[in-house]
Fold:
Amino acid sequence: MTGVQFLACVWTLVITQTVLVLSDIQFLERYEGDSVVLPCVIQQNEPPPFGMYLSRSWLQQSQVLYIHTKSVATVANDDDQTRIGTSGDPSSHSLNVTISELRVSDTDRYYCDFVVHRPLSEDERIHGDTEFVLLVTAAAHGSLDIGLIETYAGGAAVLPCLPPNGEGLAVEGVSLKRQRGRAPVEMLYNSKRHHGSSSSSSSSSSQFSTGRVQLSSAPGPGGLTYNLTLQQLQPEESALYSCQLLVRGRADNSSSLGRHVFFVSVQGRHCGCSSYSTLLYALSSAVAVLLLLLLLIGFLAIHKGKARRSVKARPQVPIYEEMTGVKPLARKVAPHHLEEMESSEYRNCSVKKLCPENHYESPASCTQNGTE
Structure:
């Protein structure tokens, strides 16, 4: 039972760590002058947190604000004092941060850290359940479709390239844009324009070195699909990327991101806690192994229980043998009864035997004595 309890505790710890380590990413698109609410939440625990930090990472590595329980938040940048406000309290495990009058420079990745007091060690900082990727654009151009691609340093990211507005026209080139600051920057441009039936002109430019970019195509339900693979990525190349196909008959002078944008997050090492797919695979494998061990130990416990019951049932076998051994005794007793019966007959007949030996008595008197 000790082994089963230990494995159960380990399993519970694995599941708990899975919940604590992993956090969702929420994409938020706003325009200059708008406001956004960042809900910072963690799971209920004891003791409750006494403080919370809001920080940003990606374009800037800085702290935005800190709030202590039952007090007013302290904003790190004096210029943001009137733009940033909070509602709620860290001790309630939930707090909302509102950023008003948004600027393009507010584009970044935000996360919350709750501070919990530990008497026997340093105060613990618990990561919030959700991280926020905020994109602030200068002009309203409709809602973006933002996706997430995670990789590690030296790894690769595959970006699907789509035509503008889903038009299935002839493809003449590809354009890749990246946004880390106020405006997108074109990182790759490769176009082949046809003029008439025989002549054509082509132009190409790339801020990636040769061999780091690869364009591939494959047949799909709606025709050919194009993917752009970025290789040997580094953490400083984390950004918003948009790959667009250049189609015949349409201008390619757009300076904004496309309709489909992907946030490429490059971690500093191969196996980081934010590499969700790898971590989930490892944790699921560990849980599967623990489950098999629990089933094996349970099977052994049931087998041992049956063995113990069978051992306890064996002492009854000699009793059965003793009971079967009574029969020979009964058989031995039977002659003894016969002897008693014979002796009784002899005793009854002793009168009869005495009668013939008594030559002075008559047979009639002997018979009367025998019946009495």
Observations:
- The chain has three domains: 32-138, 145-267, 316-371.
